[in-house]
Amino acid sequence: MPSASGGSAAGGALGEAEAPVATIRIVTRSSPMALAQVERVRAELAVLRPEIRTEVVPVTTSGDRWMGDLAALGGKGAFTKEVDAALLAGEADLAVHCVKDVPADRPLPAGTVFAAYLRRDDIRDALVHPGGLTLDELPAGTRIGTSSVRRAAQLAISHPHLECVPMRGNANRRLEKLDAGEADALLLAASGLERIGRADRISEVLSVETMCPPIGAGVLALQCREDDTATIEAVSGLGDADAWREMTAERMLLHVLQGHCNAPIAGYARAERDGRLSLRARVFTPDGKTVLDAHEWAGPLDPATLGTSVAVALLRQGARELIDGIPH
User: Fold this and answer.
1) Rounded to the nearest 5°, which phi and psi values hold at 85?
2) Could you tell me the pTM of the whole model?
């Protein structure tokens, strides 16, 4: 499976002189969601390469510990820094990330590469309301628990009568806070609730027209040291070709935009069955009063070029000034 940069995964196939991989140590965040994601990887690898054992190396990241504004910790990288460190130190061989949590405004840490993107899950957001109401049924003043600037900006446009209240923590913790009355409803990723077995809490799955998803939604990435060709060869077969094309376009978009964690940016690429690829992206002001929108089909363009083209279309509309004008 090609890497995120579009080349070969990381240096070629398994050399004849190298011993086959016997055990792969998988480093991951220690949240229930992250551990559930690792179990998916372990299960799929067990089918593909049953001779390989796996071990889990859980770490608690600074992003998991911190309940304040992520910008104070340097943005989304707070969820990956300790995982990256364990991988680079040789304490683990493979890291599993939600692509949406991996910063795209800067390269992956030197010496690492994405070996595969897994088949994409549901990219949509879900409403969790104890009474089972839909978003349109919520009365004025309903407190929506979310710390996502992307969600807050879009709610300000479509449902300005609702109130967003800051809420951080893993999905299980947010559900506990909802049940404790700290909010009246939640917005969470539908795929995340599925992964932790809490899809029963979903009141409504929102369309991408109602709530445009974050870049990288629903995709797990497998990260390795770029010189560890044996592990790369072992796991690259888990990769999904459509997910690779979609993530390449989406992450290039975010890279060109240089979006930071306080900038409401949303978008998704879609690989069609006939091979066509499209990318839609939106940039908002936090209050939702300004919305920039671009949507293009790749045609003969490769995924990275499509991502660049859509980003340039947004930049022509003033995305640079909008993004730079948001404190972070």
Assistant:
1) -65, -40
2) 0.87
